[in-house]
Amino acid sequence: xxxxxxxxxxxxxxxxxxxxxxxxxxxxxxxxxxxxxxxxxxxxxxxxxxxxxxxxxxxxxxxxxxxxxxxxxxxxxxxxxxxxxxxxxxxxxxxxxxxxxxxxxxxxxxxxxxxxxxxxxxxxxxxxxxxxxxxxxxxxxxxxxxxxxxxxxxxxxxxxxxxxxxxxxxxxxxxxxxxxxxxxxxxxxxxxxxxxxxxxxxxxxxxxxxxxxxxxxxxxxxxxxxxxxxxxxxxxxxxxx
Amino acid sequence: xxxxxxxxxxxxxxxxxxxxxxxxxxxxxxxxxxxxxxxxxxxxxxxxxxxxxxxxxxxxxxxxxxxxxxxxxxxxxxxxxxxxxxxxxxxxxxxxxxxxxxxxxxxxxxxxxxxxxxxxxxxxxxxxxxxxxxxxxxxxxxxxxxxxxxxxxxxxxxxxxxxxxxxxxxxxxxxxxxxxxxxxxxxxxxxxxxxxxxxxxxxxxxxxxxxxxxxxxxxxxxxxxxxxxxxxxxxxxxxxxxxxxxxxxxxxxxxxxxxxxxxxxxxxxxxxxxxxxxxxxxxxxxxxxxxxxxxxxxxxxxxxxxxxxxxxxxxxxxxxxxxxxxxxxxxxxxxxxxxxxxxxxxxxxxxxxxxxxxxxxxxxxxxxxxxxxxxxxxxxxx
Lengths: 241, 382
Description:
The complex is a heterodimer of chains A (241) and B (382).
Chain A: H1 2-17, H2 19-41, H3 48-71, H4 73-81, H5 84-88, H6 94-114, H7 118-126, H8 131-158, H9 162-184, H10 190-197, H11 205-208, H12 214-237
Helix pairs in contact in A: 1-6, 2-3, 2-6, 3-6, 3-7, 3-8, 3-9, 4-8, 6-8, 6-12, 8-9, 8-12, 9-10
Chain B: E1 2-11, E2 14-24, E3 29-33, H1 40-47, E4 55-60, E5 63-64, H2 69-75, E6 76-79, H3 91-101, H4 106-119, H5 135-147, E7 153-157, H6 165-178, E8 183-188, H7 191-195, E9 200-205, E10 208-213, H8 215-223, E11 226-233, H9 236-240, H10 242-248, E12 252-258, E13 267-273, H11 278-287, E14 291-297, H12 299-311, H13 333-344, H14 348-381
Parallel strand pairs in B: 3-8, 3-9, 6-7, 7-8
Antiparallel strand pairs in B: 1-2, 1-4, 4-5, 9-10, 11-13, 11-14, 12-13
């Protein structure tokens, strides 16, 4: 665990010292702000809960994209710059390397998401929503962001460069999201299975509506765990090559 | 400190290393010499626990690199051919991170970093971004990160590669200063580079040890003698007889005049001998009233030794069990014996013929090295 914290601290400091972290955060905030103005506050009168739902929906998608971009440099970038060998020849486990990378990027995502809180608070100026709905919605955003980040890290472990990493990660996420469409045109029990695997929007919708279900929380945690485990094993397997 | 037994490493179907066996005692500085693609980097990566062997046993300080990678890693400092540096960090922060990463606690690391900065003469740039440093300084930061946690074994992959002459001298001084504290294994494809710093050289060819010994032992075994360049001064008559005087020294096989860079009536000669006769040469010349202003081993000799060992045309290992299990093709052996007889007659024209052959060998070996490098690159990319 000590190794993971060391890696996380260095990685977070690298994000804050480089342009990438700031560009991703600024870009995400800008898009979320525009989306909130155009589809939340604008486009006719709506119930406060619907305004919040639209905000959370847009924020969830933007956060997943930001997580993917942040993940691309974590392993593929290190491999490109020849620095991965420093971690691989240090007395820390492969799992600690992956966990440290995940922790750093997830911390940045949490900080980035926290700066959007003024938008749901604006709803209180002319309307009323429950704080529980806001918190549940943010929990869904962070869980989806964490799952996307884990998928991105797995792709980054596989890829030899950052461009391939981001494309592979995006392909995986889109595939898991498109399962929703495939599920619509298939018969039971296959469609039930595909619905259950759907990363977005099927699993996210309850969070957007302010409903916290344990099964959905477990789903996102399981997705993140599965891909982080796969990334760890991929990193280990590379020692044979 | 290091014991490797029957090590093999395959990339797919291609054998990169093996069969490879050697041992290194604690406190030694050993050079791993070979052409690009010979298997040096793969061997060092296995020792550093960055790569797993296909088969065989690799022990560091009695610990197996496969069974105890954590313990081995904490005992090793590793510098790959490209220093693993985070450009946005300063050397001070980076070394503190590297020390903690390898198990040092915070306060010990904080005390250790200034020591290492001083040892590697990085104090002046300790708080500059690594991205702003020159190649030489980056290489020093690379060495510093490898020794910051006080390892027992230092593994350096081509540490002198890409450095300018001043930086090379500084790097050699740094390595010599580390001698005694650490066991050092460094690789290079240039014999003269590692012969300066190494106690012993292991020549690796096609993933196996082709020969081993000190540079002197290697050249003596391979060339069946040693070569020196000597510049003699004195009166014109005396200097004229210098060649005869040199030939009269016991052990001298051939003497041939070469061009001298010294002013006046100085004469330069290339002397081929069956053993190291430098002391006898000087005392004999001085006894005959001649002075010696320069005496050195022939630079061409080291190149020739390396080219022959690397190309597998030499016979260094044919003696004293230094040969690999499957000896290299010895097609050149009768020819070399003949050349030696001719050399003893000190005929300049024949010496030039040998040099021409050596150059032809060098060209052939370079082409083979390029091919081997291409194959290794291809193997690693797959």
